[in-house]
Design brief:
By secondary structure, this protein is α+β, with helices and mostly antiparallel strands. It has helices spanning 35-41, 78-86, 143-148, 168-180, 203-216, 260-265, 297-302, 380-387, 432-452, 454-458, 469-478, and strands at residues 19-20, 27-28, 51-57, 62-65, 69-71, 95-102, 110-120, 126-139, 156-161, 186-192, 195-200, 219-231, 236-247, 255-257, 272-278, 281-285, 292-296, 315-329, 332-341, 351-355, 366-371, 398-404, 416-417, 463-464. Among the domains are: 46-143, no CATH class; 151-247; 255-404, no CATH class. Strand 4 and strand 5 form a beta hairpin. Acts as an adapter for the XPO1/CRM1-mediated export of the 60S ribosomal subunit.
Length: 506
C-alpha cells in the first residue's frame, strides 16, 4: 500500500472509566473505597454496647436473665456467657464468630468478654472485627429473697416438734438435712419452742420436705390451711398451708417400757428395753438377751407411749468385774457384769446385771446406765411390768447403756466439725443464758455420740477442721486417755468454704 494512502479506520474498543479509592487512590470498579481501606475505616460493631450491667443476688447467688427470670450460673460458665450476650443490643444483627472471658480480679465486680463478629458490607465484602465488652456486676435482691426478708411472707410452713428435754434428735435431723440439701427451697428457718419452723414459698416445696422427713425419722403429720384472698369473678382462692410434724418422743439410748401386748407382737421380746436406733422405724434392744425388734411409725402412732428415762438421767458406774457369756449379736457381746455407783463408790453396795457392752468394758472402766431399783418412774406400763408374774422378777437393778470416758474434757480440740443450719433464734424468754448453755451442752453430747458411734457417723457429713499450728499442738495433748474415741482423718471431707472455693465450682 502506498505511503500516501491513508490507513483504513478501525473500530475503537470501549473505554471503561476508572474510579479511584478516595482514601488510598487504588483503582476501583463500582465502589468508592477499596477492601483494605474498608477494613480499617468501617466499624461493623457500631451500635453494640461496650459496657453493660449484670444483676447478681448475693443471697441465693443467682443472675438476672432478661427480662425477669433468675438463674444460677458459675463464673466463666456457658450459662453466664449466654446471659452476657443477651444483654448486648444489636448483637443479633451480626454473626458472632467467637466469644471468650478475659480474666479479672474476683473482687473487682467486673466481667470482661472478648467478642469476634462478622458482617457483610458493600459488594458482598465480609468484614471481621474483635472488640472487648465490660460488664459491671450490680447487687440486687431477687423477688424470692425479698420475700424471705419480709415478715410472714410465705405460702407454706412446716412446724417440726418433739416433746423431749433435749435437742439431740433435732441435731441429728439437722445434719441429715444438710447432707441431702433438703433445705434448699426454704425461704426462712426459725427456732421455736420444742422444735424448728421451716418456711417455703410454694406448697409443693413444703410437701417435698415432708416426704424427706418420712424417709429419715418416724413422724406424724397434721395439715391445715388458711384462706388469704378470693376472687369472686374467677373463683380463684389463695391459701396458706401449715403442716404440723410431730417426731416420736423417743430418742437413742432411752429406757423404754413397752406395753406387754405390744411386746408379744414384736417377737415376744422383754418389755424393758433400750432404744438402739431411731430411723424410719424405732429399733429396740434387750440388753439381757441381745434380742432386737423394730417398731414402725404407723404402729407407734396407733397407741403412742413415752420413755421411762432419757440420757439426762444417766448415772455413772464403775465396772468391778465382767465375764462374757459367749453369746454375740453383731458388734454386741453379752456379758455378766458387777458394777458400783461412782458417786458412793466403796464396794459395799454392788449391782449384778447383764449388758450388751461385753466387748468394750473392762474392770475399772466407767460406764453410764440407768438406776432402776429404788427409782419412781411414775409410768403405768412399768407398774404393770413390775406386778407381772412373768416379767416382774426379771426387772434388773441397773441397765447399762454406754461406756464413759471421764478423762475427756468437755470442749476438747477436735480435728473435725459439723456444719449448721442458718436458724433464726426465737424468743427464749428471761432464761436466755440458761437456755443457751443447755443448747451448747446438748450439742456437745451429740458430738460425743458421733465420736463413739460408727453407725451414726456413717450417716453424717463430717468436715476437716482448719486449725493453726499452735491449736493443733494443743489438740494433740488434750486427749489424756488413750482409749478416747477418735475419728480418722481419711473419713473427713474437705470444707470448701474454708478454702475460699464455692461448692458449685468445686
Amino acid at each position: 500500500m502506498d505511503e500516501d494512502t491513508p490507513m483504513p479506520m478501525m473500530a475503537s474498543e470501549p473505554v471503561i472509566p476508572t474510579t479511584l479509592c478516595y482514601n488510598c487512590g487504588a483503582p476501583l470498579v463500582g465502589s468508592t473505597l477499596c477492601n483494605d481501606c474498608m477494613k480499617t475505616t468501617v466499624d461493623i460493631s457500631q451500635g453494640i454496647q461496650r459496657e453493660a450491667v449484670l444483676n447478681f443476688c448475693r443471697d441465693c447467688e443467682r443472675w438476672l436473665l432478661p427480662p425477669a427470670s433468675w438463674t444460677v450460673a458459675a463464673l466463666e460458665s456457658r450459662e453466664l456467657m449466654a446471659i452476657c450476650l443477651r444483654k448486648l443490643k444489636r448483637l443479633n444483627k451480626v454473626r458472632v464468630v467467637d466469644a471468650s472471658f478475659i480474666w479479672t480480679e474476683p473482687h473487682s465486680r467486673r466481667i470482661k468478654l472478648k467478642l469476634t463478629i462478622q458482617d457483610t458490607v458493600t459488594n458482598d465484602v465480609i468484614l471481621q472485627q474483635t472488640f472487648e465488652v465490660v460488664y459491671i456486676v450490680m447487687y440486687q435482691q431477687c423477688p424470692d429473697c425479698q420475700k424471705s426478708f419480709t415478715q410472714n411472707h410465705w405460702r407454706a410452713s412446716v412446724q417440726v416438734r418433739q416433746a423431749v428435754s433435749h435437742k439431740r434428735t433435732f441435731l441429728h435431723l439437722e445434719q441429715l438435712i444438710l447432707k441431702h440439701n433438703a433445705h434448699n427451697e426454704t425461704t426462712n428457718i426459725k427456732e421455736a419452742r420444742n422444735g424448728v419452723d421451716f418456711f417455703f414459698a410454694a406448697r409443693n416445696h413444703a410437701e417435698g420436705f415432708i416426704n424427706f422427713l418420712h424417709t429419715v425419722v418416724p413422724v406424724e403429720v397434721t395439715k391445715s390451711h388458711e384462706l388469704i384472698s378470693e376472687d369472686i369473678h374467677t373463683s380463684t382462692k389463695s391459701y396458706k398451708f401449715s403442716y404440723s410434724v410431730k417426731l416420736v418422743p423417743i430418742c437413742k439410748d432411752d429406757l423404754i417400757a413397752l406395753p406387754v401386748k405390744l411386746a408379744h407382737q414384736l417377737g415376744n421380746i422383754t418389755p424393758l428395753l433400750l432404744c438402739h436406733r431411731v430411723g424410719t422405724s424405732i429399733t429396740f434392744l434387750d440388753p439381757n438377751t441381745l434380742q432386737t425388734a423394730d417398731l414402725s411409725s404407723k404402729i407407734y402412732w396407733r397407741a403412742p407411749f413415752t420413755s421411762l428415762a432419757d440420757v439426762k438421767e444417766l448415772v455413772e458406774f464403775i465396772v468391778l468385774d465382767i465375764e462374757p457369756t459367749g453369746y454375740t449379736n453383731g458388734r454386741f457381746i453379752l456379758a455378766d457384769v458387777t458394777v458400783a455407783r461412782a458417786s458412793d463408790f466403796s464396794g459395799d453396795r454392788q449391782y449384778f446385771t447383764r449388758t450388751h457392752l461385753g466387748g468394750i468394758l473392762h474392770p475399772g472402766d466407767s460406764v453410764m446406765g440407768y438406776m432402776v431399783t429404788g427409782t419412781n418412774f411414775n409410768n403405768p406400763e412399768f407398774d404393770k411390768l413390775e406386778q407381772s408374774r412373768t416379767y416382774g422378777p426379771r426387772v434388773p437393778d441397773v441397765v447399762l447403756v454406754k461406756k464413759h470416758y471421764p478423762n475427756r474434757q468437755k470442749k476438747n480440740k477436735r480435728n473435725w466439725k459439723l456444719k449448721r443450719l442458718a436458724v433464726g433464734e426465737g424468743d427464749r424468754g428471761a432464761n436466755e443464758e440458761k437456755e443457751k448453755d443447755r443448747v451448747e451442752n446438748d450439742f456437745e453430747l451429740f458430738l460425743r455420740d458421733v465420736e463413739e458411734d460408727a453407725e451414726l457417723r456413717a450417716t453424717l457429713a463430717l468436715y476437716k477442721q482448719k486449725k493453726k499450728d499452735d491449736e493443733m499442738s494443743i489438740a494433740e495433748t488434750d486427749m489424756t486417755d488413750g482409749e478416747t474415741p477418735k475419728i480418722d482423718m481419711d473419713d473427713l471431707l474437705d470444707d470448701f468454704d474454708d478454702l475460699g472455693i464455692d461448692d458449685n465450682q468445686a
